[in-house]
Amino acid sequence: MAVSFELIKQCSKTGARAGKLYTPHGVFETPIFMPVGTQATVKAMTPDELKAMGAGIILSNTYHLFLRPGHELVAEAGGLHGFMHWDRGILTDSGGFQVFSLGSLRKISEEGVAFRSHIDGSKQFLSPEKATEVQMALGADIIMAFDECVPYPAEYDYARQSTERTTRWAERCKRAHARKDQALFGIIQGGMYKELRTASVRDLVSLDFPGYAIGGLSVGEPKPLMYEMLEHTVPQLPARKPRYLMGVGTPDCLVEGVMYGIDMFDCVFPTRVARNGTAMTASGRLVVKNAEFARDFRPLDMDCDCYTCRNFSRAYIRHLLKSEEILGLRLTTIHNLHFLLRFMGKMRQAIMEDRFPAFRQEFWDKYQGH
Ligand SMILES: Nc1nc2c(CCc3ccccc3)c3nc[nH]c3cc2c(=O)[nH]1
Ligand SMILES: [Zn+2]
């Protein structure tokens, strides 16, 4: 079995659980936050720095790597692990979502998606078979079925047709997948319609994947609606298989996602906001570029022990960011990733000690949005 999940501790009052994810590139504790490395790099971080902060699984993108440098070249370099010198876990998204969020002139059909590259405008096509072939060449430990992320909002009938096509595509991916050392996860769709979510779970679970992602969320819907979909959908998934909530990574959504029983999270948020000088702290966001921090010689976050917070002040980091010095975004990224990885560790500890509800309450008492 390429990837297996061990349920270690189930919270007695909520859906939260602590587990272990076994992959060919190591064993990782869940709940887990997976830094995004779209173009085979977690922006501004070296693999050693990622290891030092405890990153276990990083994410990359079929869409980007298929267009540049091409999956054949990455395969020649020994797959993504060899190419980027990363010997822990890798998960790749299947490309459908990125086609719709980055590509242009898209045309979707039963066969797949025709689009123009955002890099050079060239005509491209991705099908379930092609996306699976690319991911086999990239060699990630966990690969995703080729899906359509139902847009928000979407008419019931569109959501139904799209979700049923995603199920047919998932079956085609399963048939095309021929690497025993890789796990192919199914992606649950259904828009914001509970009965379509149930149908998507039923159909994909009957295809028996080693893990399931919840797609079609974190696409601009109000957070209460996302939580409502999670509350409805997550408990219907097999308890002994990992659950991955795609595109979710702000602390408030992580706490709620863990509460509903999600094991795996990704988000571009911590690395993306770092690049415009925003640090994540326990009480919310700190825009260190703001003038108010010009003479503030304290660390970004008083109770953080990361390399950045142990050695540099807000004033210095603000200076670097204002001067567009590369070190500025590196130091902010180091802090944000460390903060989120440590935050997941604290949640796991709370679950192991059966005090997750108290942890969640403390979090919400302190948190003022982002
Ligand atoms: N395949 C797929 N991806 C999604 C992503 C990208 C996650 C991702 C994976 C790997 C790298 C970057 C991003 C979503 N991000 C926010 N909401 C999302 C929904 C979906 C979805 O429904 N399907
Ligand atoms: Zn820090």
Main sheet makeup: 8 strands, parallel
Strand order of the largest sheet: 4-14-13-12-11-10-6-5
Oligomer, anyone? Answer: single chain
Assign an overall shape: globular
CATH superfamily of the largest domain: Queuine tRNA-ribosyltransferase-like
Q: Could you tell me how far the N terminus lies from the C terminus, measured between alpha carbons in angstroms?
A: 38 Å
Number of helices: 15
Number of individual domains? 2
Portion of residues within helices:
40-55%
Average predicted confidence as pLDDT? 96
Estimated structural class: alpha/beta
The radius of gyration computed from the alpha-carbon positions, rounded to a whole number of angstroms, is: 20 Å
Name the bound molecules: ligand NE8, zinc ion
CATH architecture tag of the largest domain: Alpha-Beta Barrel
CATH-defined fold name of the largest domain: TIM Barrel
- pLDDT under 50 segments (min length 5)? none
* Strand percentage: 15-25%
Number of strands: 16
What is the CATH C-level name of the largest domain?
Answer: Alpha Beta
Subunit structure: Homodimer. Within each dimer, one monomer is responsible for RNA recognition and catalysis, while the other monomer binds to the replacement base PreQ1.
Binding site for substrate: 93-97, 147, 189, 216
GO biological process, one term: tRNA queuosine(34) biosynthetic process
Cofactor: Zn(2+)
